[in-house]
Amino acid sequence: MTTPVIRTAAKAIVVHDGRILLQRATWDGRECYFLPGGGQHPGEALADTVRREVEEETGLDVRVERMLWLREYIGAHHGGDPADHRIEAVFACTPLSDPHQLGGHAADDLQTGLEWVPLDKAPSLNLLPHTLRQPIANLATGHPETAYLGDVA
User: Fold this and answer.
1) Quick one: DSSP state of residue 106?
2) CA distance 152 to 15
3) How would you classify residue 119: left for phi > 0, otherwise alpha for psi between -120 and 50, otherwise beta?
4) Sorted alphabetically, which InterPro entries does this protein's record hold (predicted)?
5) Do 115 and 32 contact (CB within 8 A), yes or no?
6) H or E segment to which residue 49 belongs
7) What is the pLDDT at residue 96?
8) How many Cα atoms are found within 13 Å in the side-chain-facing hemisphere of 149?
C-alpha cells in the first residue's frame, strides 16, 4: 500500500469582462475544462503558487485578491486511489497583463488551449471538479460564497 501524501495546490478564478479564464483539456478521452493553477512548492506561499502557476500556464500576470474556496479530495472516499489526498485553495485573481495575450510557457500535459468563458456558462461545461461549476456561476451575481467546500470530487 502506498503511503498517502497530502498535495496542496492553488487554483485561480481569473475574471475579465464577465468571463472566466479556463484551461481547455482532454481527459479520459473527453473535452473538459480546468481552472489554471497547480501544486505548491515547499516554502512557497499559496498566493505565490497561484501567481506562478497562472503565469506558467496562461502567460498572464495576476494580482491575487482573496481566497474564495478551500476544497479537499480524498481519493479513498470517492472510489479513487487511497493515497490521493489533495487540498486546493481557490483564489480570486485580477489580470495585470493584457488578458488577450495568452500563452504560457509551461502548459499542463492535458491542456489543449485557453478560453475566456462567460461566468453563467460554467454549469453547462464539463468543468472539473464539477463541484465548482455552480459557485463559479454565482460569481456573476457579485455575491460569491466564500466557503470550505469539503471533501468533494
Assistant:
1) S
2) 24
3) alpha
4) NUDIX_hydrolase-like_dom_sf (IPR015797), NUDIX_hydrolase_CS (IPR020084), NUDIX_hydrolase_dom (IPR000086)
5) no
6) helix 46-58
7) 97
8) 25
Type of residue at 133: R
Q: What is the model's pLDDT at position 2?
A: 66
Grid coordinates of 93: 485573481
Cell reading at 69: 474556496
Closest CA to 47 of 12, 7, 72: 12
Q: Which residues of the chain have pLDDT under 50?
A: none
Take residue 1 and report the three cell numbers written for it: 500500500
Grid cell of 151 as nine digits: 471533501
Report whether 137 contacts 119 (CB < 8 A). Answer: yes
Q: Are 21 and 58 in contact (CB under 8 A)?
A: yes
**Domains of the chain by start residue, with CATH:** 5-151 (3.90.79.10)
> Among all chains, which residue has been given the C-alpha cell 468563458?
117
Report strand pairing: 5-16 vs 84-95: parallel
What is the spatial distance between Cα 50 and Cα 39, in angstroms, rounded to a whole number?
A: 9
Whole-angstrom distance, CA of residue 63 vs CA of residue 100:
16
